[in-house]
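I am still getting used to backbone structure tokens and would like to learn alongside you. Please make up or recall a protein chain and show it to me in full. Would you write everything just below, so we can both look at the same thing?
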Amino acid sequence: MLISELAVQSGVPLATVKFYLREGLLAPGTATSATRASYDEAHVRRLRLVRALVEVGGLRLAAVHEVLAALDDPELPQHDLLGAAHDRLAAQVPAVDQAALDAADAHLARLGWRVHPQAPHRRVLARALAACTAVGHPVDPATIDTYARAALMVAEVDLASVPTTDRALAMERVVIGTVLHEPLLLALRRLAQAHVSARLAKR
């Protein structure tokens, strides 16, 4: 397909497609003449992934390059590939004091979860726990355990849908699922709270 058809097929504006090509986020097409090139379905998939990373995930172009480099590295294990996507999608978390990290690590150790020491969401957990304590509402271990069981069920559903033989599709599933499913989970949690509150009000 021509570049104009690529834009239509992917749903990405032609000017944006050209920009991604200039920035090296999209591989050049196969030259068919001095001024034309042909593109295929792999370009369509990559365009959709880049657009999700930039427009939905809010990643800077340098971070997008890192994610794509991980995707294109045939030696990178599947687990590390998924980690590369998660790490780049995580918000920049400010430094957390050691006491807060120790508290978070204690919960993770009790749960038996295997978490990398540099995982950004380890710091997110630490900050959240510290904030709850600071306002006089510390989160007790029983609540953490309940939330953890629910989160583990969600994670198992998420990763069950990630293919193990198609790296491009695997990365796309992780990125799109992480970015777009988190608002879905938040909405369901709040709707569930409203439902339970209404049920309790009828007693």
